[in-house]
Each structure stands twice: as structure tokens, then as C-alpha cells.
Amino acid sequence: MKPFVNHTGIAVPFMRNDVDTDQIIPKQFLKKIERSGFGKHLFHDWRFLDEEGLKQNPDFILNQNPYDKGSILIGGKNFGCGSSREHAPWALEDFGFRCIIAPSFADIFYNNCFKNGMLPVILKDSEVTKLNKILEENPGMEMEIDLPNQKIHAGEVIIAFDIDSFRKECLINGWDDIGLSLRYENEIDDFEKRYSEKHPYLQSMIS
After folding, report:
1. Nearest to 102 by CA among 71, 124, 82, 83
2. Cis peptide leading into 66, omega within 30 of 0?
3. What is the pLDDT of residues 4-54, one digit of tens each?
4. Can you tell me whether residue 78 is helix, strand or coil?
5. Cα–Cα–Cα angle for 111, 116, 120, nearest 5°?
6. pTM of the full structure
7. Is 56 strand, coil or helix?
8. How many CB atoms lie within 10 A of CB 188?
9. Dihedral angle computed from the Cα positions of residues 57, 53, 98 and 77, in that order, rounded to the nearest 10 degrees
10. Do 8 and 71 contact (CB within 8 A), yes or no?
11. pLDDT (tens digit per residue) in 55-114
12. Helices H / strands E in the chain, number of each
């Protein structure tokens, strides 16, 4: 998993409440088991005027320059509600987003973001509104996300945010669930060796 330490990128004002996972990545595109390739289908029903995804909707913000290169999304309440599909953060990450900021998230989506190297940040309604206003006054501006110091820099405005210390450590080090296990690879190998020596009959049963 790609580590998240400091990130600077174009922020996209996307103040819609109750954006669900079927809007993020519609069900007809959930035909692959690998994580890549979902970004082109992100927000399909809003981004495109046809089912094939060939005709862009010019009014949708992610089809507008420079927001089509955005990597920080400022969302509304209850972002990522709906189903538990992990494809939703896959699509956002594949499109280029590294951080989602919102007043609240659906629990499963929130947890899935961390497992896929994205930082979901929960701020007060007033703070999200403030960031959105700054972006409206400065279209295409870049924001900086400083995870070690837990601060968002939007021009001269600095907003602090809270995050669980364990999740913070995992993001900074790029540890997903498999990465966490591999930290103990030597201990696991030692245990398997000792166990095999103590129970050699198990090896013959497996082979």
C-alpha cells in the first residue's frame, strides 16, 4: 500500500450529502476482482450522459479543468453510505484521490479507505463549509494534508483534525492488513519451523 505522509493536490468542492457507493461506482462495473481500472467508472451516472461512458456531462465538476486532476475531495454528510463494496474506495483511489474530507462517513466506507491508502478526514460542519467557501473563491487551488501533524492547509487557513493513532501509523508506513502481518514474517517462519519439528506427522498429512 502506498504510504500517506504529506499530500498536496487540487481540492474538489463536492458538497453533496448521502453520496452512496452505487453512485461512486455503479453495480454494473463490479465485474473485476483486481483493484485497478475502476477510476474510469467513478460517478459514472453523473459524469456521463450515456451508458457507454463516451459522452461526458460538461456540467459535472470532475469533467471540468482543473478538477479532473483533483486528489482531495470535499464531500457532504454521510459520504460513502449504502453497500459495503470495497470497490468504492478502489474507484476513488484509481481516479487519483488520496484524501476525502467530510462532516461524516458511513462506517464501512470509512474503514475501507484506510485499508486502501486513502485518508478520510472528519471535520465539523462549519469547518467543511469554510473549506468549501475558500475553494469557491479560489477555483482550482491546492490544499496540503499534513498527516504527521494532523493539519489541513488551505491558503492561510489551517485546520487541525483527529485520527486514530494506529490508523495514522499504518497510513504513514503504508501498512495494509497483509503488510501488518508481514512485519512479523520472521516470527511466523520461526513458529512454523518449531511447530513442524514438534508435529512432523502433520507435514506428511499435508504433502
Report:
1. 124
2. yes
3. 999 999 999 999 999 999 999 999 999 877 888 999 999 999 999 999 999
4. coil
5. 50
6. 0.87
7. strand
8. 12
9. 60
10. no
11. 999 999 999 999 999 999 999 999 999 988 899 999 999 999 999 999 999 999 999 999
12. 9, 7
148: amino acid identity, one letter? P
Amino acid at 169: E
CA distances from 143 to 98, 157, 167 (A): 12, 10, 22
- Numbered ranges of CATH 3.20.19.10 in the chain: 6-175
CATH annotation of 6-175? 3.20.19.10
Q: Which distant-in-sequence residues (6+ apart) come within 8 Å of 177 by Cβ?
A: 115
CA–CA dist 207, 196 (Å, integer): 13
> Checking DSSP bridges between strand 119-122 and strand 99-102, what pairing results, if any?
parallel
